Amino acid sequence: MKRLALFLFALLLLPCPALAEWTGEEVFTVSDSGGQPLFSLAGHVSVGDEYVSADNVLYRVTSVAGSQAAAERVGDEPMPDVSWLDLGEAQPVFSMAQSPSVPAASKGEGGKADDKKKLIAMYVTHSDESYVPSDGTQSIEGQGGIYDVARSFRDALQGLGVDVILDESTHLPHDSGAYRRSRRTAERLLQKRPDAIIDIHRDGIPDPEQYKAEIDGESASQVRLLVGRGNQNSAVNREFAKEIKAVADKKYPGLIKDIFIGKGNYNQDLSPNAILLEFGTHTLSKERVLNSTDVMAEVVSLALYGDATPSAKAEAGGAQAQTKPAGEKNKRSMSSMILLIVLVIVGVILFALLQTGGGKSAAHKIGRNLSEMTGGLIGRKRDKKE
Amino acid sequence: MSIGMIALLVLSLLILFGVLSRVLDRMALTDRQALIVVAAMFVGGWLPDIPLGLVRLNIGGALIPIIVCVYLLLHAGTAKERIRAIVASCLTAAAVFAVSLLVPADPAAMPWLDPMILYGLAGGAVAWLLGRSRRSAFIAGVLGVTIADVFTGVSLWTRGVRQTVYLGGAGALDAIVIAGVVGVLFCELTGEAMERVSRGRQKQKPVKGGQTA
Questions:
Q1: Are A180 and B170 a contacting pair at CB < 8 A?
Q2: pLDDT tens, B29-47?
Q3: Which residue of B10, B36, B114, B129 to mutate against A (max A Cβ within 10 Å)?
Q4: What is the pLDDT of residue A111?
């Protein structure tokens, strides 16, 4: 016991120097069945992860060996119809009015929240993330260069008439607990009922060429969209990511690098409109990355609210018919959640029946417990024999 | 609905079915008290945090579990058990801290568990190993994760990073509560088997012995 205590105490002292600077994540390279590299990612790739390439082809990871993974081509990924962009009509695609958490009274006709303020929430889980050419290091203990990107993105969105709450809390250190710490920030932000919640990151792959882009003749950075597949909102979050990519492909081809659908949760279980954006990688100059924030803001604003010009707003009703009914995406999120709760309740009831030895006995126990807990108001009163 | 809320729902149903009666009895809690605690955690999780300098204390996810720990410490059988629970809490904190270092930062790197749950499980497992009773395991699980969170904050503050430490929260069922519940669960599962073995021995050769709390 004493030895164990000493060992654990020694472990407690170990992390102190390790907290000082984050040295980076493992870089995975995923190749297709012919061995051609598809993409690299700093983080983790697991069997079953999916990837939507720049040209909208869906791949699924079939094997992982060390930091090398293989993916099979599944086929063309169906992308949302964004033809409304050509028409200049309003198409509020993913506003929070579709969310089940918003009371029906706050929704406009057809589930649209025209009367509601546009609001986007943002936070930074990996607070230390920085850009080596501009910040001098990939990791700053405190607010890293990624906060400059987040602020620039916020300012650009505000310039488009969108209210933005950027929570500048830090969630250090950059360890496995970072998402646990940022989860509290995300929950606080969600209490403001934003239309979407965005976690701002940068990638950690060493090759800057993989993120370099020319947007409107200007040096810029590509943006990767990351969706967690380990939660009940995964399908809706994926649709949201695809909507952003479809709009970007139309307005600013090459801006969105790809969509990675990974195994993690990334706090995306908290909202159907949650997304993680990777603005470039640490070996890119921050100035290049900042050049992408204006166009990315326009893309996100369009994907969420459509064209915000007054004339287009008036035509919003007509545009509504061009895509799926607004509530459909929400129903998917709700049905996943209800299924999960039903499964949990059924599982618990079965377990309890087994524990109590049968239906009558279980009913007797529930009645007796209800009576005890409600002071005899509900349920069966305790038998005298008991 | 987050995993934490679902876990609270499961806990409520188990209490309602009376499945946890024996466990709660040994933790000096009645079913009614336990259900009130669960309901308070559920509601408290949505209330504003209590600010304590650079620390924010969530009512449902930290304050109520800590109050339960204090209650259990006061109701602990002996001074020895109280000391054991406090020592186990410190060691659980060390273990949780070690886990945060050993586990990769990307949540996807975990083969089957989200790190948030892993923290709770690790805390609960160590709390069970060191606490050696249901009461101590719960106390060590809850206080261990809390101490680890505070330690993370303090280590940052000493290096000039004024980061606010949020205790509890995140859907009312943070690693803090998961660690406490898991600690008790492990104790119940293993303690039950050991008690049966012990009872078997007692039948053969009656001896005086205390019951595991």
A1: yes
A2: 777 788 888 788 878 877 8
A3: B114
A4: 37
